[in-house]
UniProtKB/TrEMBL annotation:
Keywords: Cell membrane, Glycosyltransferase, Membrane, Transferase, Transmembrane, Transmembrane helix. It is found in: Cell membrane. Its main location: membrane. It comes from Aromatoleum toluolicum. The keyword Glycoprotein does not apply. This is Glycosyltransferase RgtA/B/C/D-like domain-containing protein. It is a multi-pass membrane protein. The chain crosses the membrane at residues 15-33, 99-120, 126-142, 178-205, 217-238, 271-288, 300-318, 324-342, 349-371, 391-415, 427-447.
């Protein structure tokens, strides 16, 4: 072998080996994470508690613009505030805080791969990481400020720890106990529901966990999980018992909300169908292949985690995509176990379906970019103009060149991908990374224009600049809007209680043509309109006459 061919072979081996996988994960996680405002929805909403902590307020209990928020305990918000503070010289606060999602997503991928290695062998480690990366429903949440990602990561840590107990009981028990405790600190009672029952299920149903050594590891893990989980509520009880009572009532109410009806179950199946693609088809194959050995540790543990997650989703009644994130670790484990046994025809079909799917999605992204630049196709162009009439794409040639480079690299990597059982998962991970990078290169200016409340908040701040200082009450504002006005305009909208407020100003939000009119004592002094059609939003500011 010549020197040049040896170097080429070495580069190829690293590119399609562990080094290439690490680079792919880094590219996937870091692309599009920074360089844009907090977008409406969860991204802005969950930045609100981080902003409060950065200002030295509500360090123990999350709050948005001064109002307590009971959705999540503070683990994710602490991490986001630490990143924002650490990277303050280099990144805006919202960009630095969003790196908490990168950390927890990377930890989730790592622990899913570790659990797959311990349960099924080293040949499933890479497929587990690639399949997690290629999951359709993960990509958006992995690039926004999203506490549910932290819960998913701690669920994966618990699974990795429990999978280690038969061989390393003490180490596995400590990992599992720490994962369950942090799952509680990340997600509250849902974190307990998704992790602690796994300890009891495996020791009751699987012979591999009934040995004295394994049982001692489970006892250590349970003790650590229960003891560490009690720390935050105890501290909160001594600091602010009212907030603890508020949190407990909300947690208990939300945990056992109305169960899903028949029509909602149909919608849940549809949601899981696209969110968990391509995990669930391979999971079904894996379950069929191991149907006679479901009580083995390798099958029982992820199946139990999957059943617990589905039961929690159904009883909780939530149909938000973020609520589906805890499905990813158990499905990725089961799917990874089935990859080495896929028949050649099924593997090839899975491979080609991934290539065609992401090829079609890439064409759709280019069509959306064309509608912005060339006003073609005309129907889509008219819709974009109606939704955001004041949007203008700057330097489209730069985005076009970047997009061409992204697609070209994807095609070259795809064509030279080695033949192996990991080829299909690798194509899904490559395709998902390509699609996300392409969407960021071509469409990020549009999303930043359409989903940021910075213009509205800046305009409101100017409107209030000449007025006397007084509090601002609110009607109809969502949590993400309150967080955005707090961040961009330094305004903390206060709630209207019993249709009364002592504030001298009232901020009203009208959505999709609904009009909320205050009493005649209020005089309108400012209005801001954004979007159009179904996306139209109107903010009005009133002053007490």
């Amino acid at each position: 072998m010549t020197g040049e061919s040896f170097r080429t072979s070495t580069i190829r081996r690293h590119l399609y080996g562990a080094t290439g996988l690490a680079l792919l994960i880094a590219l996937y996680l870091l692309t599009g994470l920074t360089g844009h405002d907090p977008w409406r929805g969860d991204d802005a909403r969950h930045f609100g508690p981080i902003l409060e902590m950065l200002q030295g307020n509500h360090l123990l209990f999350p709050a948005i613009a001064g109002q307590p928020e009971t959705d999540f305990p503070p683990l994710y918000y602490w991490t986001g505030a630490a990143f924002a503070r650490l990277l303050a010289p280099f990144l805006p606060m919202h960009d630095g805080a969003r790196l908490a999602t990168t950390l927890f997503t990377a930890l989730a991928i790592f622990w899913i791969a570790r659990a797959a290695t311990r349960l099924y062998g080293r040949e499933t480690r890479t497929p587990a990481a690639l399949l997690t990366l290629g999951t359709l429903g993960l990509v958006l949440h992995a690039h926004e400020t999203q506490p549910m990602i932290a819960l998913m990561a701690m669920q994966a840590l618990t699974l990795a720890g429990l999978s280690h107990i038969p061989t390393r009981p003490v180490l596995g028990g400590v990992q599992a106990g720490l994962g369950a405790a942090l799952a509680f600190l990340a997600g509250g009672l849902p974190g307990i529901v998704l992790t602690l029952p796994l300890f009891l299920v495996v020791i009751a149903c699987s012979p591999e966990w009934r040995s004295p050594r394994a049982s001692s590891g489970l006892i250590i893990g349970l003790s650590l999980a229960i003891g560490a989980s009690a720390l935050w509520p105890l501290v909160l009880h001594y600091q602010s018992p009212d907030l603890l009572a508020l949190w407990w009532r909300a947690e208990w109410r939300n945990l056992w909300a109305e169960a899903m009806s028949g029509s909602e179950l149909t919608r849940l199946v549809e949601l899981i169908g696209w969110f968990a693609w391509p995990l669930w088809p391979i999971t079904l194959w894996s379950l069929w292949r191991t149907r006679r050995h479901l009580l083995r540790a390798s099958s029982l543990l992820p199946i139990a985690a999957l059943v617990l997650t589905l039961v929690w989703i159904i009883l909780n009644g939530s149909l938000s995509p973020a609520s589906m994130l805890p499905l990813v670790p158990p499905l990725a484990l089961l799917a990874a176990s089935g990859i080495p046994t896929l028949r050649r025809g099924a593997a090839n079909a899975f491979d080609w379906f991934g290539i065609m799917t992401f090829g079609v999605f890439a064409i759709l992204v280019w069509i959306a970019w064309s509608a912005q630049v060339f006003l073609w196709p005309p129907g889509l162009a008219r819709h974009l103009v109606r939704v955001a009439p004041d949007f203008a794409l700057r330097a489209p040639e730069i985005s076009a060149i970047t997009g061409i480079v992204i697609v070209t690299v994807w095609v070259l990597l795809m064509l030279r991908l080695p033949r192996s059982p990991n080829r299909a998962p690798a194509n899904w991970a490559l395709g998902m990374t390509m699609l996300w990078c392409l969407a960021i290169a071509l469409l990020k200016p549009w999303f930043d224009h359409d989903r940021s409340y910075r213009p509205a908040a800046t305009s409101l701040k100017i409107a209030l600049a000449g007025e006397r200082e007084d509090c601002v009450a609110m009607m109809g504002l969502s949590a993400s809007q309150r967080a955005s006005f707090h961040y961009f305009a330094d305004i903390r909208p206060e709630r209207v209680v019993n249709n009364e407020t002592q504030c001298g100003f009232l901020l009203v939000f009208d959505d999709r043509g609904s009009t909320q009119k205050p009493a005649q004592e209020w005089q309108q002094i400012w209005e801001f309109r954004r979007g159009g059609g179904r996306q139209r939003e109107i903010f009005r500011l009133y002053r007490r006459d």
